[in-house]
Automatic annotation (TrEMBL):
It comes from Xenotaenia resolanae. Keywords: Disulfide bond, Repeat. SUPFAM superfamilies: Immunoglobulin. Residues 50-134 form the Ig-like domain. InterPro entries: Ig-like_dom (IPR007110), Ig-like_dom_sf (IPR036179), Ig-like_fold (IPR013783). This is Ig-like domain-containing protein.
Length: 176
């Protein structure tokens, strides 16, 4: 067929395919002594890669203790699978995935805050999208990137504030 090549090692390369390529194939090696018969059958299935039919918003803000439902759906192919995971979780947290692929956080807790990834996959490929969850009505999150630059009779402290929990926050520096 046009676009098909039989390699010297016996591999069949299908660079161009259409619906006619789908089916069951076997390979029968032989040489001047004959053959030991065909290989086990292998199936060629043609399928499009997955696609998103609904993607989550970039950011969600929800009060602690409430319910948050974040949609994510793939194409309607029966082999398409939707999974969710929290990116860089501090510890295991509970969440559930609805039959339609939506992420359900109920009740929303402080540990739900952060970046979440929705993955839609089938036999061909996986695609991903991300969303950010902010949990309001909680204590502030820890600061990051704390650094100290010492001087002769002084020290310069700097940090990046964590999420404020939805309320104004202040910082105190203690020294002993």
């Amino acid at each position: 067929f046009p676009g098909w090549t039989l390699k010297a090692n016996g591999s069949l390369v299908m660079a161009t395919v259409n619906e006619d390529a789908a089916g069951t194939y076997t390979c029968t090696p032989y040489n001047s002594y004959g053959t030991m018969g065909p290989s086990a059958p292998t199936s060629v299935i043609l399928q499009d890669p997955p696609s998103f039919s609904i993607t989550p918003e970039k950011v969600y803000r929800q009060d602690a203790g409430r319910k948050l439902l974040i949609p994510c759906q793939g194409n309607t192919d029966a082999t398409t699978r939707v999974t969710w995971s929290k990116v860089d979780p501090v510890r295991p947290i509970s969440y559930s995935i609805e039959p339609n692929g939506s992420l359900l956080l109920q009740p929303v807790i402080k540990d739900h805050q952060g970046e979440w990834e929705c993955s839609v996959s089938n036999r061909v490929a996986s695609i991903r999208t991300h969303t950010q969850v902010f949990v309001l009505g909680t204590s502030p999150h820890a600061t990051t990137s704390l650094s100290v630059s010492p001087g002769v009779k002084l020290a310069n402290l700097s940090w990046e504030a964590g999420f404020d929990g939805g309320s104004t926050q202040t910082f105190s520096v203690w020294w002993v």
